[in-house]
Amino acid sequence: MRNGQNIRAWIEFDGPQFEINVTIAPVAVSKPSRPLISYSNPKIANYVSTEMYVGFSASKTNWVEAQRILAWSLSDTGVAADINTTNLPVFLPETTSSSLSAGAIAGIAIACVVFLLICLSGGYWFWRKTKIEEEDEIEDWELEYWPHRFSYGELKQATDGFSKNDLLGQGGFGRVYRGTLPNNTQVAVKCVNHDSKQGLREFMAEISSMGRLQHINLVQMRGWCRKGNELMLVYDFMPNGSLNRWIFDNPKTLLGWEGRRRVLADVAEGLNYLHHGWDKVVIHRDIKSSNILLDSEMRGRLGDFGLAKLYEHGAAPNTTRVVGTLGYLAPELATVTAPTVASDVYSFGVVVLEVACGRRPIETWAAEEEQVLIDWVREKYLDGRVCEAADKRIAGQYVAEEMERVLKLGLACCHPDPQHRPTMNEVVAVLVGDEAAAAPAAVLSELAQAGESVGCSGGDTNAEESPLQSTV
Length: 472
Fold this sequence. Notes:
This protein has about 475 residues and is α+β, with helices and mostly antiparallel strands. The radius of gyration is 39 Å and the shape is elongated. It has helices spanning about 100-135, 140-145, 150-160, 195-210, 255-275, 340-355, 375-380, 400-415, 425-430, 440-455; strands at about 5-15, 20-25, 35-40, 165-170, 175-180, 185-195, 220-225, 230-235, 280-285, 290-295, 300, 310. The protein has 10 helices and 12 strands. The chain has 4 domains: about 1-90, no CATH class; about 105-130; about 140-235, Phosphorylase Kinase, domain 1 (2-Layer Sandwich); about 245-470, Transferase(Phosphotransferase), domain 1 (Orthogonal Bundle), CATH 1.10.510.
Protein backbone atom coordinates (compact mmCIF):
# COMPACT_ATOMS: atom_id res chain seq x y z
CA MET A 1 0.00 0.00 0.00
CA ARG A 2 2.92 2.37 0.52
CA ASN A 3 5.10 1.64 -2.52
CA GLY A 4 3.43 4.29 -4.66
CA GLN A 5 1.98 1.79 -7.16
CA ASN A 6 -1.69 1.89 -8.07
CA ILE A 7 -3.94 -0.48 -6.09
CA ARG A 8 -7.32 -1.89 -7.11
CA ALA A 9 -10.02 -2.72 -4.54
CA TRP A 10 -13.26 -4.69 -4.95
CA ILE A 11 -15.98 -3.99 -2.36
CA GLU A 12 -18.94 -6.33 -2.61
CA PHE A 13 -22.12 -6.45 -0.55
CA ASP A 14 -24.35 -9.52 -0.46
CA GLY A 15 -27.70 -8.31 0.85
CA PRO A 16 -29.50 -11.64 1.43
CA GLN A 17 -26.43 -13.04 3.24
CA PHE A 18 -25.71 -9.83 5.17
CA GLU A 19 -22.09 -10.10 4.06
CA ILE A 20 -19.41 -7.61 3.00
CA ASN A 21 -16.23 -8.71 1.16
CA VAL A 22 -13.21 -6.51 0.43
CA THR A 23 -10.54 -7.71 -1.99
CA ILE A 24 -7.32 -5.80 -2.78
CA ALA A 25 -4.58 -6.37 -5.35
CA PRO A 26 -2.08 -4.36 -7.45
CA VAL A 27 -3.47 -3.05 -10.74
CA ALA A 28 -1.42 -5.55 -12.80
CA VAL A 29 -2.75 -8.53 -10.84
CA SER A 30 -6.17 -10.04 -11.48
CA LYS A 31 -8.73 -10.29 -8.73
CA PRO A 32 -7.71 -12.86 -6.10
CA SER A 33 -10.20 -15.57 -5.31
CA ARG A 34 -9.96 -14.99 -1.56
CA PRO A 35 -11.08 -11.61 -0.13
CA LEU A 36 -8.78 -9.72 2.21
CA ILE A 37 -11.70 -8.88 4.56
CA SER A 38 -14.94 -10.80 4.89
CA TYR A 39 -17.65 -9.79 7.38
CA SER A 40 -21.09 -11.29 7.89
CA ASN A 41 -23.65 -10.19 10.47
CA PRO A 42 -27.48 -9.88 10.39
CA LYS A 43 -27.16 -6.50 12.16
CA ILE A 44 -25.95 -5.07 8.85
CA ALA A 45 -29.64 -4.80 7.95
CA ASN A 46 -29.92 -2.00 10.52
CA TYR A 47 -27.49 0.18 8.55
CA VAL A 48 -28.73 -0.14 4.96
CA SER A 49 -31.91 0.83 3.18
CA THR A 50 -33.45 0.45 -0.25
CA GLU A 51 -32.11 3.86 -1.36
CA MET A 52 -28.61 4.96 -0.37
CA TYR A 53 -25.82 7.30 -1.49
CA VAL A 54 -22.43 5.89 -2.46
CA GLY A 55 -19.22 7.90 -2.10
CA PHE A 56 -15.80 8.10 -0.50
CA SER A 57 -14.52 9.30 2.84
CA ALA A 58 -11.05 9.32 4.29
CA SER A 59 -9.26 10.03 7.53
CA LYS A 60 -5.70 10.36 8.77
CA THR A 61 -3.97 10.02 12.10
CA ASN A 62 -0.67 11.71 13.02
CA TRP A 63 0.92 11.40 9.60
CA VAL A 64 0.12 12.87 6.20
CA GLU A 65 -0.64 10.34 3.47
CA ALA A 66 -1.83 11.28 -0.02
CA GLN A 67 -4.45 8.96 -1.53
CA ARG A 68 -6.13 9.47 -4.89
CA ILE A 69 -9.20 7.84 -6.43
CA LEU A 70 -8.19 7.43 -10.09
CA ALA A 71 -11.24 5.51 -11.35
CA TRP A 72 -14.21 3.63 -9.99
CA SER A 73 -17.13 1.55 -11.16
CA LEU A 74 -20.43 0.79 -9.42
CA SER A 75 -23.29 -1.63 -9.97
CA ASP A 76 -26.27 -2.24 -7.72
CA THR A 77 -27.21 -5.43 -9.59
CA GLY A 78 -24.48 -8.02 -9.92
CA VAL A 79 -20.80 -7.47 -10.75
CA ALA A 80 -19.60 -3.96 -11.61
CA ALA A 81 -18.06 -3.24 -15.01
CA ASP A 82 -14.31 -3.75 -15.23
CA ILE A 83 -12.03 -0.70 -15.21
CA ASN A 84 -9.46 -0.03 -17.96
CA THR A 85 -6.26 0.67 -16.02
CA THR A 86 -3.81 0.89 -18.91
CA ASN A 87 -3.66 4.69 -19.09
CA LEU A 88 -3.97 5.55 -15.40
CA PRO A 89 -1.12 7.72 -14.03
CA VAL A 90 1.27 6.43 -11.38
CA PHE A 91 2.36 8.76 -8.55
CA LEU A 92 5.61 7.39 -7.19
CA PRO A 93 6.98 8.80 -3.88
CA GLU A 94 9.63 11.50 -4.31
CA THR A 95 13.21 10.56 -3.51
CA THR A 96 15.62 12.96 -1.83
CA SER A 97 19.37 12.98 -1.77
CA SER A 98 20.91 12.32 1.64
CA SER A 99 23.97 14.43 0.91
CA LEU A 100 24.05 18.24 0.84
CA SER A 101 26.75 20.43 -0.53
CA ALA A 102 28.69 22.77 1.72
CA GLY A 103 27.02 25.75 0.05
CA ALA A 104 23.56 24.36 0.76
CA ILE A 105 24.43 23.77 4.40
CA ALA A 106 25.81 27.32 4.74
CA GLY A 107 22.69 28.78 3.13
CA ILE A 108 20.40 26.89 5.47
CA ALA A 109 22.41 28.01 8.50
CA ILE A 110 22.32 31.67 7.43
CA ALA A 111 18.57 31.45 6.79
CA CYS A 112 18.03 30.00 10.28
CA VAL A 113 20.06 32.77 11.93
CA VAL A 114 18.17 35.47 10.01
CA PHE A 115 14.85 33.87 10.92
CA LEU A 116 15.85 33.73 14.59
CA LEU A 117 16.82 37.41 14.59
CA ILE A 118 13.50 38.35 13.00
CA CYS A 119 11.61 36.37 15.65
CA LEU A 120 13.56 37.99 18.49
CA SER A 121 13.00 41.48 17.07
CA GLY A 122 9.28 40.82 16.64
CA GLY A 123 9.00 39.45 20.16
CA TYR A 124 10.77 42.47 21.63
CA TRP A 125 8.55 44.87 19.67
CA PHE A 126 5.40 43.08 20.83
CA TRP A 127 6.63 43.11 24.45
CA ARG A 128 7.33 46.84 24.30
CA LYS A 129 3.95 47.54 22.71
CA THR A 130 2.13 45.51 25.37
CA LYS A 131 4.10 47.20 28.15
CA ILE A 132 3.22 50.64 26.82
CA GLU A 133 -0.44 49.74 26.46
CA GLU A 134 -0.60 48.26 29.96
CA GLU A 135 1.43 50.77 31.91
CA ASP A 136 2.37 53.96 30.12
CA GLU A 137 -0.70 54.94 28.11
CA ILE A 138 -2.70 57.37 30.26
CA GLU A 139 -5.56 59.19 28.61
CA ASP A 140 -6.34 62.77 29.59
CA TRP A 141 -9.78 61.98 30.96
CA GLU A 142 -8.30 59.52 33.45
CA LEU A 143 -6.17 62.10 35.22
CA GLU A 144 -9.08 64.53 35.26
CA TYR A 145 -10.87 62.18 37.62
CA TRP A 146 -8.15 60.85 39.84
CA PRO A 147 -4.39 61.38 39.63
CA HIS A 148 -3.37 58.56 42.01
CA ARG A 149 -2.64 55.85 39.47
CA PHE A 150 -0.75 52.60 40.04
CA SER A 151 0.99 50.89 37.13
CA TYR A 152 -0.19 47.45 36.12
CA GLY A 153 3.31 46.12 36.78
CA GLU A 154 3.19 47.37 40.38
CA LEU A 155 -0.08 45.60 41.11
CA LYS A 156 0.97 42.46 39.28
CA GLN A 157 4.12 42.28 41.37
CA ALA A 158 2.24 43.11 44.56
CA THR A 159 -0.23 40.24 44.02
CA ASP A 160 2.41 37.76 42.80
CA GLY A 161 0.99 37.83 39.31
CA PHE A 162 -2.61 37.82 40.58
CA SER A 163 -1.96 34.41 42.07
CA LYS A 164 -4.79 32.16 43.20
CA ASN A 165 -3.03 31.94 46.55
CA ASP A 166 -3.69 35.67 47.03
CA LEU A 167 -7.33 35.52 45.95
CA LEU A 168 -9.47 36.85 48.80
CA GLY A 169 -12.80 36.37 47.08
CA GLN A 170 -14.83 36.97 43.95
CA GLY A 171 -18.35 38.01 43.06
CA GLY A 172 -20.49 39.54 40.35
CA PHE A 173 -18.36 42.67 40.18
CA GLY A 174 -14.95 41.02 39.98
CA ARG A 175 -12.14 39.36 41.92
CA VAL A 176 -10.29 40.67 44.99
CA TYR A 177 -6.63 39.89 45.62
CA ARG A 178 -4.35 40.58 48.56
CA GLY A 179 -1.19 42.45 47.66
CA THR A 180 1.92 43.90 49.26
CA LEU A 181 3.33 47.16 47.92
CA PRO A 182 7.12 47.80 47.81
CA ASN A 183 6.88 49.74 51.09
CA ASN A 184 5.40 46.56 52.73
CA THR A 185 1.92 48.08 52.92
CA GLN A 186 -0.76 45.44 52.50
CA VAL A 187 -3.61 46.32 50.17
CA ALA A 188 -6.65 44.68 48.59
CA VAL A 189 -6.82 44.88 44.79
CA LYS A 190 -10.28 44.60 43.25
CA CYS A 191 -10.48 43.88 39.51
CA VAL A 192 -13.64 45.22 37.85
CA ASN A 193 -14.47 44.44 34.20
CA HIS A 194 -16.47 46.75 31.93
CA ASP A 195 -17.80 46.10 28.45
CA SER A 196 -16.98 49.51 26.98
CA LYS A 197 -14.64 52.43 27.52
CA GLN A 198 -17.62 54.80 27.91
CA GLY A 199 -19.11 52.65 30.68
CA LEU A 200 -15.69 52.44 32.28
CA ARG A 201 -15.31 56.21 32.13
CA GLU A 202 -18.67 56.82 33.80
CA PHE A 203 -17.94 54.22 36.46
CA MET A 204 -14.52 55.70 37.12
CA ALA A 205 -16.00 59.19 37.48
CA GLU A 206 -18.14 57.98 40.38
CA ILE A 207 -15.42 55.83 41.91
CA SER A 208 -13.02 58.76 41.83
CA SER A 209 -15.43 60.87 43.86
CA MET A 210 -15.79 58.06 46.37
CA GLY A 211 -12.04 57.83 46.54
CA ARG A 212 -12.08 61.26 48.14
CA LEU A 213 -14.35 60.08 50.94
CA GLN A 214 -12.46 60.31 54.21
CA HIS A 215 -13.89 58.58 57.26
CA ILE A 216 -12.40 56.20 59.78
CA ASN A 217 -15.30 53.77 59.35
CA LEU A 218 -15.04 53.49 55.57
CA VAL A 219 -12.55 51.26 53.79
CA GLN A 220 -10.11 53.77 52.30
CA MET A 221 -9.39 53.64 48.58
CA ARG A 222 -5.70 54.22 47.77
CA GLY A 223 -5.73 54.41 43.99
CA TRP A 224 -6.51 52.69 40.73
CA CYS A 225 -5.08 51.14 37.60
CA ARG A 226 -6.60 50.59 34.17
CA LYS A 227 -5.69 47.84 31.72
CA GLY A 228 -7.92 47.88 28.65
CA ASN A 229 -11.49 47.65 29.89
CA GLU A 230 -10.47 46.31 33.28
CA LEU A 231 -10.26 48.70 36.22
CA MET A 232 -8.26 47.74 39.30
CA LEU A 233 -9.17 49.50 42.53
CA VAL A 234 -6.69 49.48 45.41
CA TYR A 235 -8.07 49.54 48.98
CA ASP A 236 -6.61 49.29 52.45
CA PHE A 237 -6.33 45.63 53.42
CA MET A 238 -8.57 44.52 56.27
CA PRO A 239 -6.72 41.65 58.02
CA ASN A 240 -9.74 40.29 59.90
CA GLY A 241 -11.97 39.83 56.87
CA SER A 242 -15.70 40.42 56.78
CA LEU A 243 -18.15 40.51 59.68
CA ASN A 244 -20.18 37.49 58.55
CA ARG A 245 -17.16 35.20 58.99
CA TRP A 246 -17.11 35.99 62.73
CA ILE A 247 -20.78 35.19 63.28
CA PHE A 248 -22.00 32.52 60.85
CA ASP A 249 -20.92 29.00 59.85
CA ASN A 250 -19.42 28.00 63.22
CA PRO A 251 -16.48 30.41 63.27
CA LYS A 252 -13.29 29.41 65.08
CA THR A 253 -13.67 32.51 67.24
CA LEU A 254 -17.20 33.79 67.81
CA LEU A 255 -17.49 37.57 67.99
CA GLY A 256 -18.98 38.53 71.34
CA TRP A 257 -21.70 41.05 72.05
CA GLU A 258 -19.39 43.92 72.92
CA GLY A 259 -17.51 43.48 69.65
CA ARG A 260 -20.75 43.22 67.67
CA ARG A 261 -22.24 46.32 69.26
CA ARG A 262 -19.05 48.27 68.54
CA VAL A 263 -19.02 47.16 64.89
CA LEU A 264 -22.67 48.20 64.46
CA ALA A 265 -21.87 51.62 65.88
CA ASP A 266 -18.83 51.97 63.60
CA VAL A 267 -20.81 51.11 60.48
CA ALA A 268 -23.68 53.39 61.51
CA GLU A 269 -21.26 56.31 61.78
CA GLY A 270 -19.74 55.49 58.40
CA LEU A 271 -23.16 55.26 56.74
CA ASN A 272 -24.28 58.48 58.43
CA TYR A 273 -21.24 60.19 56.90
CA LEU A 274 -22.25 58.93 53.45
CA HIS A 275 -25.82 60.17 53.83
CA HIS A 276 -25.29 63.46 55.66
CA GLY A 277 -21.62 64.24 56.25
CA TRP A 278 -20.25 64.87 52.76
CA ASP A 279 -20.90 67.44 50.05
CA LYS A 280 -22.91 64.83 48.13
CA VAL A 281 -25.32 62.11 49.20
CA VAL A 282 -23.81 58.66 48.71
CA ILE A 283 -26.26 55.76 48.60
CA HIS A 284 -24.35 52.53 49.13
CA ARG A 285 -27.09 50.14 47.81
CA ASP A 286 -25.36 46.94 48.96
CA ILE A 287 -25.08 47.06 52.75
CA LYS A 288 -24.72 43.53 54.15
CA SER A 289 -22.57 41.74 56.68
CA SER A 290 -20.16 40.45 54.03
CA ASN A 291 -19.44 44.05 52.95
CA ILE A 292 -18.56 45.11 56.51
CA LEU A 293 -14.84 44.56 57.04
CA LEU A 294 -12.87 44.42 60.26
CA ASP A 295 -9.48 46.07 60.69
CA SER A 296 -6.62 44.90 62.88
CA GLU A 297 -8.40 46.28 65.98
CA MET A 298 -11.70 44.57 65.08
CA ARG A 299 -13.33 47.90 64.28
CA GLY A 300 -15.98 47.88 61.57
CA ARG A 301 -15.54 49.59 58.22
CA LEU A 302 -18.07 49.76 55.41
CA GLY A 303 -16.59 48.68 52.09
CA ASP A 304 -17.39 47.63 48.51
CA PHE A 305 -18.74 50.75 46.82
CA GLY A 306 -19.17 48.93 43.52
CA LEU A 307 -22.93 49.64 43.45
CA ALA A 308 -22.91 53.04 45.16
CA LYS A 309 -24.48 56.12 43.60
CA LEU A 310 -23.83 59.83 44.16
CA TYR A 311 -26.51 62.51 44.31
CA GLU A 312 -26.63 66.17 45.15
CA HIS A 313 -28.32 66.94 48.46
CA GLY A 314 -32.03 67.37 47.77
CA ALA A 315 -31.81 65.80 44.28
CA ALA A 316 -34.00 62.84 43.28
CA PRO A 317 -32.27 59.58 42.34
CA ASN A 318 -32.75 58.72 38.66
CA THR A 319 -31.45 55.18 38.34
CA THR A 320 -33.84 52.56 36.91
CA ARG A 321 -31.88 49.45 37.81
CA VAL A 322 -32.53 47.48 40.98
CA VAL A 323 -29.32 46.11 42.45
CA GLY A 324 -28.36 44.63 45.78
CA THR A 325 -28.58 41.31 47.60
CA LEU A 326 -31.70 39.27 48.30
CA GLY A 327 -32.74 39.56 51.92
CA TYR A 328 -31.33 43.07 52.31
CA LEU A 329 -33.42 44.89 49.67
CA ALA A 330 -36.05 47.33 50.91
CA PRO A 331 -39.60 46.30 49.90
CA GLU A 332 -40.33 49.58 48.08
CA LEU A 333 -37.64 48.72 45.49
CA ALA A 334 -40.06 46.14 44.07
CA THR A 335 -42.18 48.98 42.67
CA VAL A 336 -39.89 52.04 42.80
CA THR A 337 -36.48 51.24 41.37
CA ALA A 338 -34.78 54.45 42.50
CA PRO A 339 -32.89 53.83 45.77
CA THR A 340 -32.94 56.34 48.62
CA VAL A 341 -31.17 56.81 51.93
CA ALA A 342 -34.17 55.04 53.48
CA SER A 343 -33.43 51.90 51.44
CA ASP A 344 -29.89 51.98 52.86
CA VAL A 345 -31.38 52.30 56.35
CA TYR A 346 -33.50 49.21 55.70
CA SER A 347 -30.43 47.18 54.68
CA PHE A 348 -28.59 48.38 57.78
CA GLY A 349 -31.57 47.32 59.91
CA VAL A 350 -31.28 43.79 58.48
CA VAL A 351 -27.59 43.79 59.46
CA VAL A 352 -28.52 44.94 62.98
CA LEU A 353 -30.90 41.99 63.34
CA GLU A 354 -28.32 39.61 61.85
CA VAL A 355 -25.69 40.67 64.36
CA ALA A 356 -28.04 40.60 67.35
CA CYS A 357 -29.73 37.29 66.45
CA GLY A 358 -26.79 35.44 64.90
CA ARG A 359 -28.96 34.48 61.91
CA ARG A 360 -28.89 35.32 58.21
CA PRO A 361 -31.78 37.29 56.64
CA ILE A 362 -33.17 34.11 55.09
CA GLU A 363 -32.58 30.69 56.65
CA THR A 364 -33.92 27.88 54.48
CA TRP A 365 -33.29 25.28 57.16
CA ALA A 366 -35.67 26.90 59.64
CA ALA A 367 -39.41 26.30 59.96
CA GLU A 368 -41.51 28.16 57.41
CA GLU A 369 -42.65 30.81 59.89
CA GLU A 370 -39.06 31.39 61.00
CA GLN A 371 -37.23 31.49 57.66
CA VAL A 372 -37.40 35.27 57.15
CA LEU A 373 -35.46 36.95 59.97
CA ILE A 374 -37.40 40.22 60.00
CA ASP A 375 -40.79 38.48 60.22
CA TRP A 376 -39.54 36.14 62.96
CA VAL A 377 -38.19 38.97 65.14
CA ARG A 378 -41.32 41.05 64.55
CA GLU A 379 -43.49 38.17 65.77
CA LYS A 380 -41.34 37.87 68.89
CA TYR A 381 -41.76 41.60 69.45
CA LEU A 382 -45.54 41.48 69.08
CA ASP A 383 -45.67 38.58 71.56
CA GLY A 384 -43.67 40.59 74.12
CA ARG A 385 -40.67 38.23 73.85
CA VAL A 386 -38.34 40.18 71.58
CA CYS A 387 -35.20 39.26 73.51
CA GLU A 388 -35.81 35.59 72.78
CA ALA A 389 -34.55 36.39 69.29
CA ALA A 390 -31.08 37.26 70.61
CA ASP A 391 -28.18 34.96 69.70
CA LYS A 392 -28.12 32.18 72.31
CA ARG A 393 -24.37 31.76 71.86
CA ILE A 394 -23.69 35.12 73.53
CA ALA A 395 -26.20 34.78 76.34
CA GLY A 396 -24.97 36.45 79.52
CA GLN A 397 -22.71 38.91 77.68
CA TYR A 398 -25.23 41.74 77.40
CA VAL A 399 -27.65 43.76 79.49
CA ALA A 400 -31.22 42.82 78.58
CA GLU A 401 -32.31 46.44 78.12
CA GLU A 402 -29.46 47.09 75.68
CA MET A 403 -30.26 44.02 73.59
CA GLU A 404 -33.92 45.00 73.58
CA ARG A 405 -33.04 48.49 72.39
CA VAL A 406 -30.86 47.17 69.55
CA LEU A 407 -33.48 44.66 68.36
CA LYS A 408 -36.18 47.35 68.33
CA LEU A 409 -33.85 49.65 66.45
CA GLY A 410 -33.32 46.95 63.80
CA LEU A 411 -37.08 46.50 63.42
CA ALA A 412 -37.61 50.25 63.20
CA CYS A 413 -35.02 50.48 60.42
CA CYS A 414 -36.86 47.66 58.59
CA HIS A 415 -40.28 49.31 58.66
CA PRO A 416 -42.07 48.58 55.36
CA ASP A 417 -42.88 52.29 54.95
CA PRO A 418 -39.64 54.21 54.24
CA GLN A 419 -41.17 57.39 55.67
CA HIS A 420 -41.33 55.78 59.12
CA ARG A 421 -37.74 54.60 59.25
CA PRO A 422 -35.28 56.55 61.39
CA THR A 423 -32.47 58.52 59.77
CA MET A 424 -28.88 57.45 60.24
CA ASN A 425 -28.45 60.45 62.54
CA GLU A 426 -31.02 58.93 64.87
CA VAL A 427 -29.56 55.44 64.49
CA VAL A 428 -26.11 56.72 65.48
CA ALA A 429 -27.62 58.46 68.47
CA VAL A 430 -29.08 55.16 69.69
CA LEU A 431 -25.97 53.07 69.07
CA VAL A 432 -23.28 55.58 70.00
CA GLY A 433 -24.90 58.36 71.98
CA ASP A 434 -24.97 58.71 75.75
CA GLU A 435 -28.52 58.65 77.09
CA ALA A 436 -27.72 61.65 79.25
CA ALA A 437 -25.95 63.75 76.66
CA ALA A 438 -25.15 62.70 73.12
CA ALA A 439 -28.35 60.98 71.95
CA PRO A 440 -31.40 63.06 71.04
CA ALA A 441 -33.81 63.03 73.93
CA ALA A 442 -36.82 62.29 71.71
CA VAL A 443 -35.36 59.08 70.34
CA LEU A 444 -34.32 57.84 73.77
CA SER A 445 -37.73 58.73 75.17
CA GLU A 446 -39.37 56.61 72.48
CA LEU A 447 -37.04 53.73 73.25
CA ALA A 448 -37.72 54.01 76.97
CA GLN A 449 -41.50 54.06 76.44
CA ALA A 450 -41.28 51.08 74.08
CA GLY A 451 -39.17 49.23 76.64
CA GLU A 452 -41.76 49.80 79.35
CA SER A 453 -44.62 48.48 77.23
CA VAL A 454 -42.94 45.56 75.45
CA GLY A 455 -39.71 44.26 76.91
CA CYS A 456 -37.52 41.21 77.27
CA SER A 457 -39.24 40.07 80.43
CA GLY A 458 -42.79 40.57 79.22
CA GLY A 459 -44.95 43.60 79.93
CA ASP A 460 -48.35 45.06 79.16
CA THR A 461 -48.90 44.47 75.44
CA ASN A 462 -52.05 46.60 75.54
CA ALA A 463 -50.28 49.72 76.79
CA GLU A 464 -50.60 52.89 74.74
CA GLU A 465 -48.38 52.72 71.68
CA SER A 466 -45.27 54.91 71.75
CA PRO A 467 -43.99 56.72 68.60
CA LEU A 468 -41.23 54.15 68.16
CA GLN A 469 -43.63 51.22 68.51
CA SER A 470 -45.76 52.62 65.71
CA THR A 471 -42.74 52.40 63.43
CA VAL A 472 -41.91 48.74 64.23
